[in-house]
Design goal:
single chain, about 450 residues, alpha/beta, TIM Barrel, two-stranded antiparallel ribbon, 14 helices, about 30% helix, globular
């Protein structure tokens, strides 16, 4: 039975791609709170770390502990470069995820999530969580199972309605097949095809005991929390309640799409969460978004919350995965007082508002070559021939239009996938006469 006393008071947010890396999560957990690794694009991060030589050997040590035979050896043969890449050499990319992918592609995803959680849990007896995005459906089941093989204690999911995840966790804990309905543009949920993951098909040891992790849904409205508490496919263990001040993606404002004079969504009373109704659900909850101070922690506890989730403060600490030069630059401009943070309604191809930081001489949006070679945020649709296709409004405009998308939807979009990976110091080198990366 979960008691309030056994719950963490502080949850370290699972941010970005590699910002909430294993080193950060381990330190937070070692100090008695809930350290959380970001599960987003861990497969790409793993193969890039290997291609850069894995200089400290941490990736390979964790790979050696992966309990399914031969998977790690196959990944090392394909991606590990003992001396790292040559200057300007592009990273070898992974095949883009689709509805149906090879066993090897899923196993690499399992391995990457295992590695990150394994390293975060090493050397202490604290609890570790993983944050996954509901919207990134394709890799999620393999990601969850890989994290569970490493003993992950909490799963946190938002960016959508994670109604099916509790049952998936139940089934994966028993090494049984798990399914999710696959969102295809223009298709009703009841008619959606299924994504299926079967641990046995990957050589899982079904005699290995797995603990079903606690599941925390990330919500921006008490109505969604109530729906999940009543109608989720299984047990929901609590909620992280994110306000519009939270970094990264935000829920759309409920004001009908109105924008401020600076072009930002206008949040108002309708976007405030009714904490009395959250208390009435009888499940623990944590407040997030502008809560990272002793005063806000005390306020949260006084309102009946179990504590707070803190993101940005952890994102700029020494142990986070942000590129060190980028981190130092942002902190320097923050001290000067000339740092600007904007909630941009167009940047992210997801259609959700996205926090963007800028400072003098560094605009909030950069002109990047449109090239969808990671594909995590693509949307599925049915092509004229009845097969599933994939498109992203941040890919080359004509490609998007040729796939049935509207040109207007491409305006202002940025490749968040490549941008976030570049922000943790692993940018792709472009095959061009000009130096630089994405």
């Amino acid at each position: 039975m979960t008691t309030q006393a056994s719950l963490p008071v502080i949850i370290q947010g699972g941010m970005g791609v590699g910002v909430s890396r294993w080193l950060l999560a381990r330190e937070v957990s070692r100090l008695g709170q809930l350290g959380v690794v970001s599960g987003t694009a861990l497969d790409s991060l793993l193969v890039r770390r290997l291609q850069d030589g894995d200089t400290d050997g941490e990736m390979r040590r964790a790979i050696d502990a992966f309990p399914i035979p031969d998977v790690g050896a196959a990944v090392l043969r394909r991606y590990f470069l003992p001396n790292g890449r040559e200057s300007g050499q592009p990273y070898k990319l992974l095949p883009l995820y689709k509805q149906h992918v090879s066993v090897a592609r899923q196993q690499l995803t399992m391995l990457a999530n295992f590695v990150e959680v394994f390293l975060a849990k090493r050397g202490h007896d604290g609890v570790v969580g993983i944050n996954l995005l509901t919207k990134l459906q394709l890799p999620n089941l393999a990601s969850l199972y890989g994290a569970m093989l490493a003993g992950v204690d909490y799963v946190l999911m938002g960016a959508g309605i994670p109604r099916e995840i509790p049952l998936a966790l139940d089934r994966l804990a028993l090494h049984e097949p798990a399914t999710l309905r696959f969102d295809v543009d223009g298709v009703a949920t009841v008619d959606a095809p299924l994504l299926t993951f079967d641990p046995v098909a990957h050589g899982a040891d079904v005699t290995r005991n797995l603990t079903r992790p606690r599941f925390l849904a990330i919500v921006a409205a008490n109505s969604l929390a109530a729906t999940l508490a009543r109608k989720a496919s299984g047990r929901v263990d609590g909620f992280v309640v994110e306000g519009p001040a939270a970094g990264g993606h935000n829920a759309p404002a409920r004001g009908g799409g109105a924008l401020s004079a600076t072009g930002e969504p206008i949040y108002g009373e309708r976007d405030a969460v009714d904490l009395a109704k959250m208390r009435d659900l009888g499940l623990p909850f944590w407040l997030a978004g502008g809560t990272g101070s002793p005063h806000q922690l005390q306020h949260a506890l006084a309102e009946g919350a179990a504590g707070i989730q803190v993101g940005t403060l952890f994102a700029y600490c020494d142990e986070s995965g942000f590129d060190s030069a980028l981190k130092a630059t942002v902190l320097d401009h923050a001290r000067r007082g000339d740092l600007a943070i904007r909630t941009d309604p167009r940047t992210s191809p997801t259609g959700f508002p996205f926090k963007v930081v800028s400072w003098p001489g560094h605009p909030a949006t950069l002109e990047r070559e449109r090239r969808c070679d990671l594909g995590y945020l693509r949307t599925a649709y049915y092509r004229d021939d009845g097969r599933v296709g994939y498109r992203c409004p941040a890919e080359p405009e004509q490609d998007y239009v040729n796939k049935g998308g509207l040109l207007v939807d491409t305006v202002g979009r940025q490749c968040v996938c490549n941008g976030l990976i570049a922000a943790v110091g692993l940018p792709q080198s472009l095959e061009t006469d000009e130096p630089g990366g994405r």
